[in-house]
Specification:
431 residues, mainly alpha, Growth Hormone, Chain: A, 79% helix, 2% strand, globular
Length: 431
């Protein structure tokens, strides 16, 4: 067996916009956390109806399953711990091992023979992927050039879209196999996790974190700084825009196939096919619009966000006035897919790296990510029950949530575009 490639240094990037091949590779490997996160969420969503029948789960139990995994509570716990440990111990120690935990959990889900095995595996997957996301994104933010930070973090969002697309098309192709088909989908995530873990062995510690950690004297004091001054304002702002957007995106990601199937807008194959279209649209718009323009200027960022904010409200508002048919579902998918690329998670990822000092970057994103996924977990308890009464109660609440996210994001957006992380720290007094 050949020796593993020695870890490569990950130095802080300059203030330009040029991205090296090595930086693209690092972003791709870090972005696989998003692939595995979204992929596991959607794999569970694609199989909910089948798993409910196989393990004789009630609507309440189905809500619990959705709530404890990568979509919500399990992920929240992992994010809280992983983000904090990533700041305290370093990015490398987290991303080096958490994928092995993920692989173990996803294998339990794939081979589950009873409901306890299914529930435990789902929870482990959630914790592992939750720990990986804030740590991996902090790494990308710290080696990205100042004028290409949005582009590289947007690239991780492409991975977030690719995971569900692969999962959903696999689920669609394997739909005739029923439960076996869903097991194969989960096994594919197991293989991807192992391969990604092996490739990540060539990554090294963030140079920005190493430099900052040498001058950090008191971790407890750092935590106090997170909840004061400009750090607290940034924490509240990023938590708000992500929480209310994620309630809609999380519902769509895991429950769209279930809702479409349950409310008879289409069968299992139709529901999976329609859901995959949303992620394809997000991926296309992220590459052609977000990655191309998000680093240009503050005014450009506000314009992109504003257009997306209006579209996402319309996307779910139409369910309040139009009948729940395949045509209405397609319209919702197109509108929300475009808006999710413009005013969704990609911008949250960018601002979560830009608004916090290095020794708080993972902790801050782990906190906001964890809070959003925790509340999504409680919301997930009620979605199957609400959906069984019709689409309007769910749509009305999601429209309200998206309006809050869009409004707060647009009118309180900070000007950080094109600036180095050190310049932003200095201007905000968060160093």
């Amino acid at each position: 067996m050949s020796q593993a490639t020695p870890p490569v240094s990950a130095p802080p990037a300059g203030d330009g916009s040029t991205i090296t091949a090595q930086q693209w590779r690092w972003s791709a490997l870090a972005g696989m956390a998003s692939y595995l996160d979204a992929g596991s969420i959607v794999a569970l969503g694609a199989g909910l109806a089948i798993l409910q029948k196989e393990f004789n789960l009630s609507d309440g139990a189905l809500g619990v399953l959705a709530a404890i995994g990568p979509n919500a509570l399990g992920c929240a716990i992992g994010a809280f711990l992983g983000g904090w440990l990533g700041d305290k111990l370093g990015r490398k120690r987290i991303y080096q091992y958490d994928l092995m935990v993920y692989a173990f959990g996803i294998l339990m889900v794939a081979l589950a023979v009873n409901s306890p095995m299914l529930f435990i595996g789902t929870f482990i997957v959630g914790v592992a992927v939750g720990a990986d996301v804030p740590t991996s994104l902090a790494l990308v933010g710290e080696f990205a050039p100042a004028k290409a930070r949005g582009k590289l973090l947007g690239f991780t969002q492409v991975a977030w879209c690719l995971g569900p697309v692969v999962v959903l098309w696999m689920a669609l192709a394997l739909a005739p196999l029923g439960l076996l088909g869903i097991r194969i989908v989960f096994l594919h995530l197991f293989v991807v996790a192992i391969v990604t873990w092996a490739l990540r062995r060539g990554l090294a510690e963030s140079a920005r974190w190493k430099e900052a950690s040498q001058s950090a004297k008191n971790v407890g004091r750092n935590m106090k700084l997170l909840f004061s001054g400009s750090n607290l304002r940034a924490l509240v702002w990023t938590a708000t825009i992500y929480l209310f957007w994620n309630l809609a995106a999380g519902t769509a990601g895991i429950f769209n196939p279930y809702i479409i199937n349950t409310l008879h807008a289409g069968g299992q194959a139709m529901s999976v096919g329609l859901s995959s279209a949303s992620f394809i649209i997000v991926m296309i718009v992220t590459v052609t619009v977000f990655m191309k323009y998000s680093d240009r200027s503050f005014r450009t960022r506000k314009l992109i966000w504003g257009v997306g904010a209006v579209m996402q409200v319309v996307a779910y508002g139409i369910f309040l006035f139009l009948p729940f048919t395949v045509t209405t579902v397609v319209l919702n998918i197109v509108l929300f897919g475009i808006s999710a690329a413009l005013s969704g998670e990609a911008f949250y990822k960018v601002f979560s790296q830009e608004l916090f000092p290095t020794m708080l970057r993972g902790t801050a994103q782990g906190f906001t990510f964890g809070v959003a996924r925790t509340i999504l977990g409680f919301w997930s308890f009620f979605v199957p029950v609400l959906a069984n009464t019709g689409i309007k109660p769910v749509a009305a609440l999601l429209t309200l949530f998206l309006a809050i996210s869009g409004f707060v994001g647009f009118f309180f957006m900070p000007d950080t575009s094109g600036k180095s992380l050190e310049q932003i720290e200095s201007e905000r007094g968060t160093a």
